């Protein structure tokens, strides 16, 4: 196993409720999740639950030195690993529910793109509400919010509740095709325009 896979698995064993997966996401899933990151300008990118950086590396590749990339990771060990691997990323050890405050501390009110690696279906409804409220608080009408879910779980009640939560929260929710090259296979939610913004 690679160093990041070993670290990821170890942290999952210690705290499966916050890590939410037993292995890092694949390059194919990372490419799909980060399609909203623009290739021009100086965008503000917020990444939630970056883990060992499967999505972080792809975001950095797309930014190519532009903009501001803030990655919020609640697990200190994973954050330390991520900071060493991606020194140009603004890695924050903290709770994503504090997104508006974290972004303001860096001189920004809104994000252009929010990429989430959080295990939404593993969270309670209360936690989902707090996190989605924090996400929508830093969104403008043009901000893109992307997250993913595992295909095998999409018919289970927690996953269906989260999908309905997205539909209730956003005017536009597009479900992408299954990424078979991920373990386990996954699909991506692309959401825009929070209701009542």
Structure write-up:
The termini are far apart. α3 crosses α4. This protein has a seven-stranded mixed β-sheet, sandwiched between helices. The model is unreliable at 5-13 and 15-20 (pLDDT under 50). It has helices spanning 3-14, 16-19, 27-33, 54-63, 76-85, 99-104, 125-137, 157-169, and strands at 44-48, 68-73, 90-93, 111-116, 139-150, 170-175, 186-194. With 197 residues, it is of the alpha/beta class.
Going across the major beta sheet, what is the strand order?
3-2-1-4-5-7-6
What share of residues is helical? 25-40%
Number of helices: 8
Averaged pLDDT, please?
Answer: 90
Net shape: globular
How do the helices and strands follow one another from N- to C-terminus?
Answer: HHHEHEHEHEHEHEE
Fill in the keyword field for this structure.
single chain, 197 residues, 7-stranded mixed sheet, 8 helices, 7 strands, 24% strand, globular
Give the topology.
Blueprint (H helix, E strand, L loop, with lengths): L2 H12 L1 H4 L7 H7 L10 E5 L5 H10 L4 E6 L2 H10 L4 E4 L5 H6 L6 E6 L8 H13 L1 E12 L6 H13 E6 L10 E9 L3
Parallel strand pairs: 1-2, 1-4, 2-3, 4-5
Antiparallel strand pairs: 5-7, 6-7
């Amino acid at each position: 196993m690679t160093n990041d896979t070993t670290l990821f698995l170890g942290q999952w064993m210690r705290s499966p409720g916050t890590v939410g997966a037993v292995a890092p996401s694949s390059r194919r899933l990372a490419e799909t999740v980060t399609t909203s990151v623009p290739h021009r300008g100086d965008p503000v990118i917020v990444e939630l639950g970056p883990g060992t950086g499967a999505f972080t590396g792809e975001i950095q590749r797309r930014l190519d030195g532009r903009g501001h990339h803030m990655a919020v990771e609640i697990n200190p060990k994973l954050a330390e690993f991520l900071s060493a691997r991606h020194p140009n990323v603004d890695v924050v050890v903290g709770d994503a529910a504090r997104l508006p405050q974290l972004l303001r501390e860096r001189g920004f009110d809104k994000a252009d793109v929010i990429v989430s690696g959080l295990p939404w279906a593993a969270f309670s409804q209360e936690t989902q509400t707090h996190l989605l409220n924090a996400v929508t608080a830093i969104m403008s009408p043009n901000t893109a919010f992307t997250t993913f879910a595992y295909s095998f779980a999409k018919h289970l009640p927690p996953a269906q509740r989260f999908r309905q939560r997205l539909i209730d929260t956003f005017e536009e929710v597009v479900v992408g095709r299954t990424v078979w090259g991920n373990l386990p296979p996954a699909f991506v939610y692309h959401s825009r325009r929070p209701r009542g913004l």
